[in-house]
Amino acid sequence: MTSQSAFEYARDLARQAPSSRNRYVDFLRAASIMVVVFGHWLMAAPQVLPDGLRFDHLLSVTRWTHFLTWILQVMPIFFLVGGYANEVSWRSAQRKGELYAAWLRTRLRRLILPVLPLLAVWTAGAFILLQSGFDRTLIRVSSQAALVPVWFLATYVVVVALTPVTLRAWDRYGWTAIFTTGILAGAVDVLSIELGVPVVEFLNYIFVWCTVHSLGYAWADSKLGGVTRRLLMSATGLAATIALVWLGPYPVAMVGLDTAQITNSYPPRVTLALLGMFQAGLVLLAEPLLERWMRRLRPWTVVVGVSSQ
């Protein structure tokens, strides 16, 4: 498919989108994809030394870049958008009488199938390069940069599968349900970091991301409307994240570093739930303006083109 025909295909899809669709959700998804792709490549920091080429991570070389991860760590945005989309999808399935198994199969197919060609091509390419005597370090670093962005899929699959349960909790308990998973995430950090309880930290793959995912429910149900509410949520999340980093054992970088004894993302810590509040409030403040912009055909076509790749 030529670049022109690809654009025409995306434009046709863009024109077919119903007027009731929240296009800002698609914009955030597409923007997050671009940040992940380019961010991981930009973070690579190869250095030419007298004894050869050394591959480093930009965050390990320049500490001032750690604060950039408060914006470039976009996994919270993925889960926020996922919460919105999964709520709309599951409620629609319920109205149609669709069974949970059929709904989940459809959601997972859309998640997993696009990743399979990437894994197949990269695996075959890496094997060929290894057999050709290509530098193993370069292959390893390139593979990490290309494939690390898909790490979250396993967690996201679990969070999607839990949608009926977490959405029922949201419907029944409202904000209390979100606060509860957030508090549980903090409790897990205390048990794992302060008390040294083994393995328990992996529960935060559920508690942290279900907290952010449920913020998407609040967004879809118009419980996060208004500039004041969105600004307050963003400011609260930012202030709490700063406090935990300043006073607690959490590092500044919101992505994992091999040199760090404690990381915020592997496994996720309560700091990422709070960062999700900060980011969610921030991006939702821009929703009215960018939603109107998405009503124009050209920018909407670009978003559709990125999302459909």
Question: How is this structure best described in words?
Answer:
The protein has 309 residues and is mainly alpha-helical. The protein is built from 16 helices and 2 strands. A two-stranded antiparallel sheet has the order 1-2. The chain has helices at 3-16, 23-42, 58-61, 69-72, 75-96, 100-112, 115-131, 136-147, 152-161, 163-173, 175-194, 204-220, 227-247, 270-285, 287-293, 297-307, and strands spanning 44-49, 52-57.
State the strand order across the main sheet: 1-2
How does the overall form come out from the CA principal axes?
A: globular
Tally of separate helices: 16
As a percent range, the share of helical residues equals over 70%
| Structural class by sheet pairing and helices | mainly alpha
| Secondary-structure element order, N to C | HHEEHHHHHHHHHHHHHH
Quote the beta fraction: under 5%
Radius of gyration: 21 Å
Q: Which quaternary structure do these chains form?
A: single chain
Question: Which residues form runs of ≥5 with pLDDT under 50?
Answer: none
Span between N and C termini? 12 Å
Mean pLDDT equals: 85
* Major sheet attributes: 2 strands, antiparallel
Q: What's the total count of β strands? A: 2
Task: Output the keywords.
two-stranded antiparallel sheet; 71% helix; 309 residues; single chain
Set out the fold topology.
Elements: H1 3-16, H2 23-42, E1 44-49, E2 52-57, H3 58-61, H4 69-72, H5 75-96, H6 100-112, H7 115-131, H8 136-147, H9 152-161, H10 163-173, H11 175-194, H12 204-220, H13 227-247, H14 270-285, H15 287-293, H16 297-307
Antiparallel strand pairs: 1-2
